[in-house]
Design a protein that fits this description.
By secondary structure, the protein is mainly α. The chain has three domains: about 1-65, Alpha Horseshoe (Leucine-rich Repeat Variant); about 70-160, Leucine-rich Repeat Variant; about 225-290, Leucine-rich Repeat Variant (Alpha Horseshoe), CATH 1.25.10.10. The protein has 18 helices and no strands. The chain has helices at about 1-20, 25-35, 40-50, 55-65, 70-80, 85-100, 105-110, 115-130, 135-140, 150-160, 165-170, 180-190, 200-205, 210-225, 230-235, 240-255, 260-265, 270-285. The termini are far apart.
């Protein structure tokens, strides 16, 4: 047993020595080989690699250290969120989001002024994971970011932080220039099951993109109630079969008798999926029982 321990100690020491090798590939491999060691000497050595000039070595060290419990890791990553290299900055923020330390919220918020899109995208993701409500104002402003992916991630983060109250901020996103943003905004609004944005949501049923229209139908399905029936009946005339099929299913769930005739007409739809959905929806009304 002592020989085995001595061998492991020798191997560990050799790997630690490799962390100072002149070849970056040797240093990166040593980090990978040390990832399962919990020895404090190893942790200390790996933390020192957060100052390595090679991006690959730094990335390897940060990826291993994010799962270790040591406050110095957070401090080391905080120093690199202002690094001159874009790759280092956005990865630093990504790893800080994975760690989830609340003391990193303010520095991450400041990163929304970064000119690099990847930095701002990962800042939004990180704030959503950390979940501090202090970030809400910044994420709300990010809904106007010039990049649609930043806007989309801001919506997701706002939903994670405050899932019951994103409506006021998201209504304008239903009219966003980017279809992905509009689609996600409709879905999130639907999940809140509130009718606060109902009129704007109905307008989204006329969106030029069928995925956005499907998202609007999803939202109306979640909101439900009598108010959703007429818009969903109109959606049965949508040119895209997926919208019609989802609208049929939503009407079946709501169960309003005003939908019976339109659903019977949907039994003659040109698309087989719509017809099957209409048949299942009508079963819920029990109108065919003797």
């Amino acid at each position: 047993m002592d020989k085995k321990l001595n061998l492991e100690q020798r191997n560990m020491n050799e790997l630690i020595n490799d962390l100072d090798d002149s070849e970056w590939s040797v240093r990166a491999k040593a980090i990978f080989d040390l990832k399962d060691y919990d020895d404090q000497t190893v942790i200390n050595a790996l933390i020192s690699k957060l100052n390595d000039e090679n991006e690959n070595v730094w990335l390897s060290a940060a990826n291993v250290l994010k799962n270790k419990k040591d406050s110095r890791i957070v401090n080391g990553l905080l120093k690199t969120i202002t690094d001159k290299r874009d790759e280092i900055r956005w990865h630093s923020i990504y790893f800080l989001g994975e760690i989830g330390d609340i003391k990193t919220v303010d520095p991450i918020i400041e990163s929304f002024n970064d000119p690099c899109v990847e930095v701002r995208i990962n800042a939004a993701k990180a704030l959503g994971k950390i979940g501090d409500k202090k970030a809400i104002d910044t994420l709300t402003k990010a809904l106007d970011d010039e990049n649609p992916i930043v806007r989309k991630e801001a919506i997701t983060a706002l939903n994670l932080i405050s899932p019951k109250k994103p409506i006021d901020n998201l209504v304008k996103s239903l009219n966003d220039d980017d279809k992905r943003v509009r689609s996600l905004a409709a879905i999130i609004i639907g999940k809140t099951k509130t009718s606060k944005a109902f009129d704007t949501l109905i307008g989204t049923l006329e969106d030029g993109d069928h995925i956005v229209r499907i998202s609007a139908v999803f939202a109306l399905d979640k909101i439900g109630g009598e108010q959703s029936v007429k818009p969903l009946i109109r959606a049965l005339k949508d040119p895209y079969w997926g919208v019609r099929s989802d609208a049929v299913s939503a009407l079946g769930k709501i169960g309003d008798k005003n939908a019976v005739v339109p659903l019977m007409e949907a039994l003659k739809d040109e698309n087989s999926f719509v017809r099957k959905s209409a048949s299942r929806a009508l079963e819920k009304f029990e109108i065919f029982k003797r």
